[in-house]
Amino acid sequence: MTESANTHVDPQDTISILVATDIHLGFDYSKKRGGQSDESFVTFEEILKYGKDNEVDMVLLGGDLFHETKPSQTALLKCVELLRKYCLGPKKCKIEFLSDSEHIFRHCAQKHVNYKDPNLNVSMPVFTIHGNHDDPSELYPVCYPLGFGTVGSMDILSATGLVNYFGKWTDLKRIVISPLILKKRNTHVALYGLSYINDQRLWRLYRDDKVHPVLSIFFLCM
């Protein structure tokens, strides 16, 4: 049985996405089950190395990169070192970003995808949301240009230009989830992400019809 021309997919059109979640950098596994104290960093390095060795187009993190929203300076330093080691390089990123960067990254210091930053050479971009462990809402409020928000570990990483932090809610009266529209040659993907919100609060938002995803043809949700 031969493959029809209509179903053939050119490998150069394929968007390869490495998905990882709940890495919990900074958690001391030796105190819980006899593991290594730096086990979370070993795991994170294995993930990034796998992505680089297999030349994935991007890494997608589903939250809880850090075990705490205010990690130790050591944990933050090790994370930055690993991201610099594996995500920066001369290889050109093949993904086009078609969404409105100013809107998607409105809560970030840098309002564009990091591989478009002229001061960085990003070969393997990392996109991430925050989870319940690194939820910035537990911390003190700060003055944002738009008058909302709190700062957490993901905001700091985003400011370094090493990750693309999206899906951070900024208004609990009405949540509009706009997708990341990604393109590689003839392939388009709409990637939706909503960072952690307390379960009961999120249920009330859905009940009151205050969560509104902007629909697209082909999408992934985080």
TrEMBL record:
One Gene Ontology MF term: single-stranded DNA endodeoxyribonuclease activity
Record has Hydrolase as a keyword: yes
Domain Calcineurin-like phosphoesterase: 16-167
Pfam families: Metallophos
Entry superkingdom: Eukaryota
GO terms (BP aspect): double-strand break repair via homologous recombination; double-strand break repair via nonhomologous end joining; meiotic DNA double-strand break formation; mitochondrial double-strand break repair via homologous recombination; mitotic G2 DNA damage checkpoint signaling; mitotic intra-S DNA damage checkpoint signaling; telomere maintenance
Transmembrane segments: none
Keyword Ubl conjugation: no
UniProt entry keywords in alphabetical sequence: Hydrolase
SUPFAM superfamilies in UniProt: Metallo-dependent phosphatases
Gene Ontology CC, one term: Mre11 complex
Name the UniProt record assigns to this protein: MRE11 protein
Taxonomic placement: Eukaryota, Metazoa, Ecdysozoa, Arthropoda, Hexapoda
